[in-house]
Amino acid sequence: MRRALLVFLSLLLAVLLGLPPAYAGGIISETFTDNTYNQDMWSIYTQGTGPSTAVTHNRLEITLPANASNGGNPYPFGGSIGTKFALKGDFDVQVDFNLFNWPAPTGVQVGIGPTARGGFFAGVWLINEPSYTPSPQVYETWLNGEDFRATASDASGKLRMQRVGNTITTYYWHSGWIFLGSRTDPVLGVNCGFNFYVLGAGPVGQNFQGKQVQVAFDNLQITYSAFAPQKNYNPAVLQLLLD
Fold first, then answer.
1. Does residue 104 contact residue 128 with C-beta atoms inside 8 Å?
2. β-strand partners of 84
3. Would you list the DSSP string of 5-36?
4. What pLDDT does 235 receive?
5. 136 φ, ψ to 5°?
6. CB of 108 closer than 8 Å to CB of 200
């Protein structure tokens, strides 16, 4: 009887949130077709002064103007789209990006960040960071203390984060998926939501180079084993752990 009640409540919650049942894996995707998106599943945010987001040209476009700043907030400035649900168990998260206005050096980071209790414990991104040598532009991943980098020159591409058990592995696309980094750690197995973001580099965006930057996201795809409602965290607050 108790199990039947739990199953019923799970189904009811799934219907109310527009999500598949918690005990059944599946795929959640967003392609911004007809310049719309599923607002029951995703939230779009900006933070700081100046950044803007727009669902246009059948994709999400995020703009950081030349005068963008953190506006006195203790976080970097930028824009993002985040999940309204959390994942538990295994997952495979992918997104396409297009750097359609990218006057390097930019001092901007474009990536995927799993979020738990308001903070990043891992991430995979493309960054143009003037202080990096020998190349300012790299694909980078940070997995709870371990950092991996690969030189990047792509104007468009894909990012991917995969979890099996407590192991997270990250990839970038260059004529096929290229392994970037991997780590096994109990911290990496926690329930988490996701943000796909564009941020000024550095803890408060101070490495931004004062040039307008525009980035588009498309074909968000999350393959999951189970989900849970997201609670008690504000996905608008994106804070870099690195730089």
1. yes
2. none
3. HHHHHHHHHHHHHT---TTS-EEEEE--GGG-
4. 52
5. -75, -20
6. yes
Which tens digits make up the pLDDT trace of 55-87? 999 999 999 999 999 998 888 999 999 998 888
| Residues in CB range of 124: below 8 A, 6 or more apart | 111, 112, 139, 140, 141, 159, 160, 161, 170, 171, 172, 180, 181
- Tens-place pLDDT, residues 25-52: 899 999 999 999 999 899 999 999 999 9
| CATH class belonging to 24-229 | mainly beta
Nearest to 98 by CA among 221, 214, 220: 214
Q: How far is residue 224's CA from residue 191's CA, in Å, rounded to a whole number?
A: 12
Given this model, what pLDDT does residue 74 score?
86
Cβ burial 33-58 (10 Å sphere, 16+ → b, else e): eeeebeeebbbbbbbbebbebebeee
- Report the distance separating Cα 133 and Cα 77, nearest Å: 24
CA–CA separation, 33 vs 56, rounded Å?
9
Reference 205, options 69, 49, 4; nearest CA is 69
Q: Which residue has the tokens 């901007």?
A: 108
| Residues in contact with 231: Cβ distance below 8 Å, sequence separation at least 6, in sequence order | none
DSSP string, 144-171: TTEEEEEE---SEEEEEEEEETTEEEEE
Distance from C-alpha of 198 to C-alpha of 106, rounded to nearest angstrom: 12
